Amino acid sequence: MTLADDAVSPPPPTSPPAGRRLLRLEVRNSQTPIERKPPWIKTTARMGPEYRQLTQLVKDEGLHTVCQEAGCPNIFECWE
After folding, report:
1. Which residue from 65, 33, 36 is spatially nearest to 51, judged by alpha carbons?
2. Which has more confidence, 51 or 42?
3. What are phi and psi of 45, to 5 degrees?
4. Which end is more exposed in the chain, N or C (fewer Cβ atoms within 10 Å of the end residue's Cβ)?
5. What CA–CA distance (Å, rounded) separates 29 from 11?
């Protein structure tokens, strides 16, 4: 398998569900290949001691935060 093989996924089927025509947007989207992000773009969140302490404090006090409820991907940066 080469990088080019992994970069583009096969197009979705262009046939509509039974009894329905494809919309113009669906036709255009089916003709555009979906590209995967390169592996170097992904990063691992660092959970330092300050983050762990603050998470435990929030849990112990029975608090709820917008960051946690929304599943914010930057919570590690803000809480450090």
Report:
1. 65
2. 51
3. -70, 140
4. N
5. 9
Sequence ranges of the domains in the chain = 3-40, 49-78
35 pairs with which residues across the strands?
8
| Average pLDDT of the residues in 39-62 | 85
Say how many C-beta atoms besides its own lie within 10 A of residue 79's C-beta.
19
> What DSSP line would sit under 16-70, residue for residue?
PSTT-PPPHHHHHHHHSPPBPPPGGG--PPP--HHHHHHHHHHHHTT---HHHHH
Query: Is 51 in contact with 79 (CB distance < 8 Å)?
Result: yes
